[in-house]
Write a structure and sequence with these properties.
99 residues, mainly alpha, elongated
Length: 99
């Protein structure tokens, strides 16, 4: 299981739990907003990872947009690791994601 798959599964669980709370209940909207924000971070990492892999591919599909895709990918990777650390007691959490 990748860190992206792990986080998406945990966010699915968080979203289901938040939606189970009655509409108008204190904290429900914020919890759903937090899930959406975290999904955007995970998606940003996945997109950056895809772009960095594309930049390594020779040929016309290579990304020549400039910049340093590895620095961007590292920043996203750290953000995703911080998100995953919230679930470090989950049995599917991989300790290699720490640090």
């Amino acid at each position: 299981m990748t860190i992206v798959e792990f986080l998406n599964a945990r966010l699915d669980e968080d979203e289901r739990a938040s939606k189970a709370v009655p509409v108008g209940a204190r904290g429900r909207d914020r919890a759903l907003a937090e899930v959406a924000a975290k999904r955007n971070i995970v998606r940003g990492y996945a997109d950056a990872h895809h772009a960095s892999m594309r930049s390594l591919t020779p040929g016309p599909q290579a990304d020549t947009g400039g910049g340093d895709p590895w620095s961007e990918l590292l920043a996203w990777r750290l953000a995703v690791k911080y998100l995953a650390a919230v679930y470090r007691t989950h049995p599917e959490y991989d300790r290699s994601w720490e640090g």
